[in-house]
Design brief:
Layout: H1 2-15, E1 20-27, E2 30-33, H2 37-41, H3 43-46, H4 77-80, E3 95-98, E4 102-112, E5 117-121, E6 129-135, E7 151-157, H5 171-176, E8 184-187, E9 195-205, E10 215-226
Parallel strand pairs: 3-10
Antiparallel strand pairs: 1-2, 1-4, 4-5, 4-8, 6-7, 6-9, 9-10
The structure holds copper (II) ion (CU).
Catalytic activity: [(1->4)-beta-D-glucosyl]n+m + reduced acceptor + O2 = 4-dehydro-beta-D-glucosyl-[(1->4)-beta-D-glucosyl]n-1 + [(1->4)-beta-D-glucosyl]m + acceptor + H2O
Cofactor: Cu(2+)
Signal peptide: 1-18
Length: 286
């Protein structure tokens, strides 16, 4: 029995070595720490050896997230991860940002060993990166779970220009991997109306077991947008719900498989025409 438990722990620790999310945001040149779920909640198990940790209850703009990837497209965790989709359990902040300014998010993985959780370089590089926003009811996002057809896409990143097929390189790797990776920078739409918004970053990893389907890494942050006069919000045709926006049969998702990176190039990867899941990017019109 002891051996079984040890084997389980070792397997789990090894498997866990390549998952993560957003650890920091740079919004209008202010750095905001993220709110990874494992840091405080594994405390009793892992001790206090988490150099990258933030103490429990520290106010954050970010909804709590768990390092493990999401696979289930109909799970409420698709909104803002586990357990950021529910009422935030930590005091919540909003980062002020003017419409037209940028948000840069930096990713890391959480490396687990038997005594510590360590922050390490982002690992994945096959698949798109998509960023959504949702307008929160009232002047704060606190306690709101992002339910309904409220999400609009503000950016999406696919293959690096010049890539010859779906083996890449993908922008995901360029932006997120390596010690000097720049992170992913997006502009808050200049036309956006003043108000509180959730910003939802989504990394899709297409390099996964075919039977499991694509992996999703979702993180949400709260911002308060100072919009210009005559600010707008996107119309219905740009708005989707999470969960609900994606199906596993979507062309850009059903191609997930380890073969995207290894062995003979399958026909389905022999193209540069990648079809992003979700709605069109809102351009500030309509
Ligand atoms: Cu991973």
């Amino acid at each position: 029995m002891k051996l079984l438990i040890l084997t389980f722990l070792l397997t789990w620790a090894l498997n866990a070595a390549a998952h993560g999310g957003i650890y920091t945001y740079n919004i209008s040149s202010v750095i905001y720490q993220g709110n990874p779920w494992h840091i405080h909640d594994y405390g009793p198990f892992y001790g206090s050896g988490n150099a990258s940790g933030i103490p429990a209850g520290t106010p954050s703009i970010q909804r709590r997230w768990y390092f493990w990837p999401l696979y289930n497209l109909s799970s409420p965790n698709m909104t803002c991860n586990f357990d950021g989709s529910f009422s935030p359990t930590t005091p919540s902040l909003h980062a002020p940002v003017r419409a037209g300014e940028t948000i840069t998010a930096s990713y890391n993985v959480a490396n687990f060993n038997l005594t510590a959780v360590e922050r390490d370089q982002w690992y994945h590089q096959y698949g798109p990166l998509l960023i959504y926003m949702a307008r929160c009811p009232g002047l704060s996002c606190a306690g709101w779970n992002g339910e309904g057809e409220v999400w609009f896409k503000i950016a999406e990143f696919g293959l690096v220009p010049g890539a010859k097929n779906l083996r890449g390189p993908w922008m995901q790797g360029v932006l997120l991997m390596g010690t000097s990776s720049p992170g992913v920078e997006v502009r808050v739409p200049g036309a956006l109306k003043t108000g509180a918004y959730l910003v939802r970053h989504e990394v899709v990893n297409l390099q996964s077991n075919r039977a499991d389907g694509a992996q999703f890494y979702v993180s949400c942050a709260q911002v308060f947008v100072e919009g210009g006069e005559g600010g707008k919000v996107p119309g219905e045709r740009f708005s989707v719900a999470f969960p609900g926006a994606y199906k596993s049969s979507d062309p850009g998702l059903r191609i997930a498989g380890n073969e995207i990176s290894d062995g003979e190039l399958l026909e389905e990867y022999n193209t540069t025409d990648y079809q992003f899941p979700g709605p069109l990017v809102w351009d500030g019109e309509g």
